[in-house]
Amino acid sequence: MSDLGKEYRIAGVTVRKVQEQYLRDVPPSFLYPNAKSEEIKVIEPRLAEIDMDEDRDTLVVSIHSWLVKTPDHVILIDTGSGNDKERPRNPSSIIRRFRFSTDCVVQVLRRKMSTSS
Question: CA 26, CA 98: separation in Å to the nearest integer?
C-alpha cells in the first residue's frame, strides 16, 4: 500500500513522503471547483505525467503522510485519508478502513531506523 518517497534534508532534519494511496480519475473540478476548463487546459502542460491520468483529462491525487526525523525525534505528520469517514464525492472510499497507521508506518519507521545510524 505504501512506499517511501524521496528524502529531503533541510537544516539537519530529514523529511520523507510516505505514500498511502493514489486517487485516480479525479475531475479537476473536484479540487478546483471555481476553475474554468480553459484555465485547467492552460496549466495542464506543466503538470507532471504522474499528476494526470493517461487521457490527460482527469487528475491523479496523492494521499500521503510525512515522516520527519530530527537529531532527537521522529515525527509522523499524518495527512493520510483516515478511517470511518463519509466521503460523498468519493464513493469508493466511504467508511473505508485502512490499516495504514498500524501496519505501514511501523514498517517504514523500522526500515528507516535500521538504515540510518
Answer: 20
Range of the domain at 88: 3-115
* 42-100 pLDDT tens trace: 888 888 878 888 877 888 888 888 889 999 998 888 776 666 666 665 655 555 566 55
Q: How many domains does the chain have?
A: 1
Rg (CA), the chain: 17
List CB contacts of 113: < 8 A, sequence separation 6 or more.
74
Rounded (to 5) percent helix, strand, coil in the chain:
30, 30, 35
DSSP 40: H
pTM for the model stands at 0.60
Residue count (the chain): 117
Whole-angstrom Cα distance, residue 93 to residue 91? Answer: 5
